[in-house]
Design brief:
homodimer; alpha/beta; Stationary-phase Survival Protein Sure Homolog, Chain: A; nine-stranded mixed sheet; 13 strands; 27% helix
């Protein structure tokens, strides 16, 4: 029997990007989609606590079942694992996101949160994103070049607790220079809120901003790879400990001696 | 002039935990609070894109100004940095969270997302959490033992892009054994959705679950420290790259040669 592949995203079950992702992985296995009913961009790793979740089967055909879920991308993975799949998936793929999730954007990304959630279940997981925010983005190059990446993860697996952040530049398939395995570029979003006044005279703020690359000259980063026509793959570590800082901070434990002295 | 301290949380501007946090840091500087209007537990690093944000000044007195914001914890930090503070804060503190944010719970935590967002602005940032989910939790030991930690971060700073995840065990002040600088414990939440039927006969699911510690015998983790009566401090790294896996995957770039060969 072909391997089971769980598919989700953050742009919603009806987004063109997830249709492209199903097209990418369908030749590789049996596909189950559990994706949000609506767009969940910027939802990060949010989970739904205050309200219950709904799950709706929206399509079923040979080798493909599609469910929509009322929750976030992370909810979709949890609900799929608990209530939908009968066996552990051999692969989880998330996306294809409409827009970049390179560098620090991973922090805000629902697409990558779903992949990270999959990896917490021990499923080799990959988030795919295309550097084009538009609804009618052309995902054809991503389908072509993403399939061998997904196939290789299926074949080789990934260390437990890891997943991949894959981003595609906006280029025709034959103009893509290749694949670079990279580190996450250092940088941050610089916010500029747009202040407006509502009809009742009250202020409100729209989030805007632009990404600032803190190391444009580094050639081993995902930002560099994408700017230079490569597909970027960043392997993700779910251990967020800063070990260097941890060693430097060992003397902070002196506080404990003071406390113990007062006992 | 005393240093500027930015305060936020995810339980909302009216939560007892943030009042305790203000009490903790007020002796150390001028305090500006920008916190969510409502509870945002489990919101992770979500940002608000679809609707604009509102900002309301709810209190102003000597050395303390409090704003509520209609958005998420990450929104609060971004809006505070863009629209509220006139100088870069010397410290950001988030919490005190009602409930643990140890181990992998950091992934789902709005409290820690706010601290991580602060660190992306280059502000030394600390998230504080107490292992008691109840509304009327006793934060007095956290106030006593958290203050020297906050003071030390103010004094020494933290490497850019880093922040601290501080958790307090549920113990009286004089029963706390001390402070341990730890690594993030490996483990995951095991979900068990509770399925119910609504009055119209349709299924819905409530998220429940319990934390599974993958390494209960390891004595250098935050889970161990908390179980054994210590305050845990985990320094957080905002670079999520898995460098070990990155080296192992270098041969994946062979795909690129194949692509180049077809050009």
């Amino acid at each position: 029997m072909k391997p089971l592949i769980l598919v989700t995203n953050d742009d919603g079950v009806n987004a063109p990007g997830i249709a492209a992702l199903v097209e990418m992985v369908r030749p590789l296995g049996r596909v189950i989609v559990v994706a949000p009913e609506e767009g969940n961009s910027g939802m990060s790793h949010a989970i739904t606590i205050k309200v219950p979740l709904r799950l709706t089967k929206v399509k079923e055909e040979e080798g493909l079942v599609i469910y929509s879920c009322s929750g976030t991308p992370a909810d979709c993975v949890k609900l799929a694992m608990s209530e939908v799949v009968k066996e552990k998936p051999a692969l989880l793929v998330s996306g294809i996101n409409h827009g970049s999730n390179s560098a620090v954007s991973i922090v805000y990304s629902g697409t990558m949160a779903a992949a990270m959630e999959g990896s917490l279940y021990g499923i080799p997981s990959v988030g795919f994103s295309l550097l084009d925010y538009s609804y009618d983005a052309d995902f054809s190059a991503a389908v072509i070049h993403g399939r061998p990446i997904a196939a290789r993860v299926l074949e080789e697996g990934l260390v437990r607790g890891g997943c991949l952040n894959v981003n595609f530049p906006v280029l025709p398939s034959d103009m893509i220079k290749g694949v670079k395995v990279c580190r996450m570029s250092a940088g941050s979003w610089r916010e500029e809120f747009e202040k407006r006044i509502d009809p009742r005279g009250h202020e409100y703020f729209w989030l805007t901003g632009s990404y600032h690359n803190a190391e444009p000259a580094s050639t081993d980063t995902d930002e560099w790879a994408l700017t230079n026509g490569y597909i970027s793959i960043v392997p993700i570590n779910m251990d967020y400990t800063n070990y260097q800082e941890m060693e430097k901070m060992k003397n902070w434990e002196l506080i404990s001696n003071k406390n113990e002295a007062t006992i």
